[in-house]
What we know:
Elements: H1 13-20, H2 32-48, H3 54-63, H4 65-73, H5 89-100, E1 107-108, E2 111-112, H6 122-135, H7 147-157, H8 167-170, H9 173-185, H10 191-200, H11 202-207, H12 227-234, H13 271-280, E3 284-285, E4 308-309, E5 325-328, E6 331-334, H14 344-352, H15 357-369, H16 376-387, H17 397-406, H18 408-411, E7 422-423, H19 426-436, E8 440-441, E9 445-446, E10 460-461, H20 470-474, H21 497-501, H22 514-530, H23 533-539, H24 544-548, E11 559-560, H25 564-575, H26 588-607, H27 613-624, H28 634-650, H29 653-656, E12 657-658
Antiparallel strand pairs: 1-2, 3-4, 5-6, 7-12, 8-11, 9-10
Amino acid sequence: xxxxxxxxxxxxxxxxxxxxxxxxxxxxxxxxxxxxxxxxxxxxxxxxxxxxxxxxxxxxxxxxxxxxxxxxxxxxxxxxxxxxxxxxxxxxxxxxxxxxxxxxxxxxxxxxxxxxxxxxxxxxxxxxxxxxxxxxxxxxxxxxxxxxxxxxxxxxxxxxxxxxxxxxxxxxxxxxxxxxxxxxxxxxxxxxxxxxxxxxxxxxxxxxxxxxxxxxxxxxxxxxxxxxxxxxxxxxxxxxxxxxxxxxxxxxxxxxxxxxxxxxxxxxxxxxxxxxxxxxxxxxxxxxxxxxxxxxxxxxxxxxxxxxxxxxxxxxxxxxxxxxxxxxxxxxxxxxxxxxxxxxxxxxxxxxxxxxxxxxxxxxxxxxxxxxxxxxxxxxxxxxxxxxxxxxxxxxxxxxxxxxxxxxxxxxxxxxxxxxxxxxxxxxxxxxxxxxxxxxxxxxxxxxxxxxxxxxxxxxxxxxxxxxxxxxxxxxxxxxxxxxxxxxxxxxxxxxxxxxxxxxxxxxxxxxxxxxxxxxxxxxxxxxxxxxxxxxxxxxxxxxxxxxxxxxxxxxxxxxxxxxxxxxxxxxxxxxxxxxxxxxxxxxxxxxxxxxxxxxxxxxxxxxxxxxxxxxxxxxxxxxxxxxxxxxxxxxxxxxxxxxxxxxxxxxxxxxxxx
Length: 659
């Protein structure tokens, strides 16, 4: 029996090939009548949330996939009321900062983040708030309940990228929290509204360097910065080349006829388009800047807000003898057009109405949520909904997201072709595991020393997740990419002939370097074995308070899981009860029954009943013959066996590849 496939080596291209080729949905020992509904429910939750739970799988099976999607669209969000207790990402980031370090003066003149406190801690506070919305919370139960909204916001954060890796944003975590709110608020709204709020946000202005951008000054040989002008065309809306409605190259000038013959691709923009658009992106500065135009400092300016427009710094072409008009992508408009005289809305309307936007944005959502290699027809179907939701609305995100998730290619296994599915992002693997095993914030971790008091006193923190530096362990983190090009390129092809021969991509595989694979596996193994409540309290015999107090704000261990459900399933099959004594561990037949029950349970919860017979046999063989069964400490042995089973599934290609 080759157990190597259960080791970290499962990330290898061989197993990617097996998984991407349309894995088995067999399930030995599983109720075949119910298998397809469990499988499809699990598939939907993997696509549309930060991780399936057993209870949510059962809900989807009961209510139906489309009903679940509709329910998610009506879920209460943080953007409806200011008094309902459902905090926005920014509000919760601020609240967490004040709870963790209550004596710090975080605000000055009513502007959070300018009070002179340890503002570098805000990045950790923002990470805590993000996790709460991704994982859910035991007491703030509204937080994380709108899973689809939060998951779409995460997908959008990898399209319209900002990153806390930027030196100026690194110390202004509240700005990134505010930006995430823009994405979440507009996730089911208008793409044009989203584009407008993103463009005016101080976060994007600082990140892509058009905050403080000024009109041309021939005497100083300066011209407007072109950074954002280029990226808003190339990366956020239109892309490099003209596209057909299905995302293929438009070579005949008609986006509605495809595929087009030939190999020539038509660029969407020229350098002159960038130069002209850059003129529009002038005159914007952070709100409440007390110093000269364009000044940035960690202690001044309102980063968690839209920028302000200053007409005196806006390009009017007077210094260069122009006419005050610009032409962008073939459309001419005045630089002082619009209610605010900035010309910005006219420019964004040009981008929004470009025929590329529908296939460009639609394909991004499909590849981020469902599959890296969608068919041409799938992209076209969704893009047509982007262009018209059936009620004459263009760019209505709720309709687009619904089209992505309800498309036959997303829901019907028989419609899914070669290469359907996607390699999971390492950090999403982590969130999925945490949610599957009842994650909770680690209670009673220690806040940092309070510098304002000066006496070294520290707070004891409850109800707050802590995971400051996911990039160290997973090679990525939400809103923390290394560049505006995201964590990985959408057209990345692994160095394996199967992918190139079949014209398949596997974008997420780009960050699965040898070193990152080892880090991911070790992190998962550590969490699944050492940060489990029963291990802490019943094996180590520590109280949660004793265990928690050694962890602090920057610790990457601010959460805990539990195997209560797995222990109950295992013991019920082993002993016929759940009294915790695991008395029949030495009985051969009973232990086989218990292992079979455990595997079936984990197959449903972690794989949606898609475990192949080959994998099931290998895992069963290992667990039945494990030395754990001969241990005199029967509870400890059962817990260790469960931990092994979870870890081996979690690091297999069956789990690491989304199908």
